[in-house]
Amino acid sequence: MAGFEGPIRMTIVVKIGGQAQETAIQRKNVARQIAALRRAGHRVVVIHGGGKALTETLGRLGITTEFHQGLRVTDAATRDVAVMVLAGIVNKQWVAEIQHHGQPALGICGGDARLVAAKKIRASTKTGAKDLGFVGRPHSVNTGVLEMALEAGWVPVVASVALNGTREYYNINADDLAAAIASALKADRLFYLTDSGGVWDSQKQLLATVRKSEIPALIRRGVVRDGMIPKLRSCARTLKQGVAEIDILSPALPNALLNALKRGSAAGTRVVNK
To answer: What ranges do the domains of the chain cover?
Structure first.
């Protein structure tokens, strides 16, 4: 790609969220950049959820959606629809879009080739623990299928469902899945594409850089709030596990991923291991 300069053979994990999942223009923009990164020599793995599409499909089927502490309560019927929508429709949309830009892609989910083993989670409440149903977190990652695809020159596209030890699929938070896979691959960069476009302080100012060592104080002083708190805590854990840098970016920017590889060019927030 003309004008693109970046280090060769980096391992990059891209977690796609927000409007990039729903808007055709943003999906095309993100897929174009992913293809460009792979052609430039980088090893790229894509992780996605698809919460809005799942909620809409559940609604059409007459299945009520319930959330608890930001996690979707997932009974057996909801789980089955999640597998259908995330590992089926949404996953294949991303494969089609990336391949439209000339880059072979392999659509899989966390359950394929034992990529991710899921462990059931429970949410705490004031009266005890709440059973969320088929909701899990990554317990272990086997990167074999990813390495096979990367060495073949493909882009693995991973949907956020995975198997537990009893042949049951579990719904996995896509941020957690991206962090686990990036850690297992010892990725050079982890990109979170999210509508927030970065970390904003209490004065609505974008923080260009956040150091891992600063995160506890930012949370304690209320500089960052709400949903950014668990994301930054996840970033801190991921950096400890060998990922070099994390960028939180808006998918609406035309070249957010490509520019983030250029020092000083990122428009979002860079979280660094210092």
So the answer is: 11-272
Q: How many Cβ atoms sit within 10 Å of the Cβ of residue 24?
A: 9
The pTM score is: 0.91
What is the C-alpha to C-alpha distance for residues 73 and 67, in angstroms, rounded to an integer? 6
Please, what is the angle between helix 228-240 and helix 174-185, to 10°? Answer: 10
Distance CA 67, CA 105 (A): 32
- Taking only the tens place, the pLDDT of each residue in 7-22 is 568 999 999 987 677 7
> Cβ contacts of residue 40 below 8 Å, gap of 6+?
1, 4, 6, 8
Tell me: pLDDT of 2 over 50.
no
Angle, vertex CA 218, rays to CA 216 and CA 223, nearest 5: 155
Burial of 98 (0-12, 13-18, 19+ CB in 10 A): buried
| Spatial separation of the C-alpha atoms in residues 172 and 137, rounded to whole Å | 6
If we measure between CA atoms, which residue out of 157, 74, 49, 54 comes closest to residue 112? 157
* E strands present in 142-181: 155-159, 161-163, 169-172
Q: What are phi and psi of 113, to 5 degrees?
A: 50, 30
First-to-last alpha carbon distance for the chain, in angstroms, is: 32
Give the CATH architecture of domain 11-272: 3-Layer(aba) Sandwich (3.40)
